[in-house]
Amino acid sequence: MKKFLCIGIIVIWSVLLTANVFAQNGKVIFPVNPKPLPEGIIPETSITESGRIRAALTTGGTTSTTALIDHGGPVINTPTIYLIWYGNWNQANGSDTPAGQQIIRDWANSIGGTPHYQINSSYSTTKPISGNVLYGGETTDTGTRTSLTDNQIRTVVNNAITSGRLPYNANGVYFVITSSNVTASSGFCTQYCGWHTSATLTSGKVRYSFVGNAKRCLSSCAAQGTVSPNGNPGIDGAISVLTHELEEANSDPDLNAWYDSSGAENADKCAWTFGHFQFQTANGAWANMTFGGRNWLIQRNLWKSGSSWLCMVDSTHN
Fold this sequence. Notes:
Elements lengths: L21 E3 L2 E3 L17 E3 L2 E3 L14 E2 L9 E7 L11 H13 L23 E8 L5 E2 L1 H13 L9 E7 L4 E2 L9 E8 L2 E9 L5 H4 L11 H19 L6 E2 L19 E2 L5 E2 L1 E3 L2 E3 L4 E5 L2 E5 L6
Parallel strand pairs: 6-7, 6-9, 8-10, 9-12
Antiparallel strand pairs: 1-2, 3-4, 5-13, 11-12, 14-15, 16-17, 18-19
């Protein structure tokens, strides 16, 4: 999502729900799920299962939506993911565990080149996006704050680079990922689930993002409540947001490239929709794609097909 734009932008998606993108403290945020779903009640094509309503999470159609506009800024041909862990990631139980971190590593190592991520290569040939992603490594910030301001998040990124713990990479996207005991004071869980931006830091221009562990607010930042494809709802919820922010940082890294006339970037236009191409995993959760040896439920992205712009899981599945 766009982090700095004019105040009062409202984006309405033509799906079963609406979501607002609005300015707060100098940034435009991607909001929490505007219609949290009760566990076991998921819209469309309901069937009875063990005496309750159960259905695939199939929100949103493939009706053409308004186009993205190239505003002239740069894109990243092939981004490199860097992970910055902040908080307590060594819990014996729950979401904030080394096993939870490994789910995110598996995502980072395998999202590039997937049929889903190749959607991003459909926008332009003059400023091409490869549809591939590299994984550049990770570091841990040993800070003990339980609430981070936007400026403190920026400092966490800057320190990771200037200390040499992570390299400076002009094509990098640096993700600050917090454990569930840490919040972001500008509105994590209450106003947004994540954001991305760019800033000139000590080493140069840096593209970075904040994504929190959705365990802190499953009803706001996870699609299926207490169930998920990899058995870790907080991390699986974060994966969908990580993908959303990576796709936007890829196509609009400096907030002056691909977005529509209302300010919505590519993933914003398909936010909180997961499509009709879904399957149920062994643990009862729903997923809509498989890569890296795991199943995932990830928000759709905007695919350009000729003159049409469609929310899709990949170029052949809605």
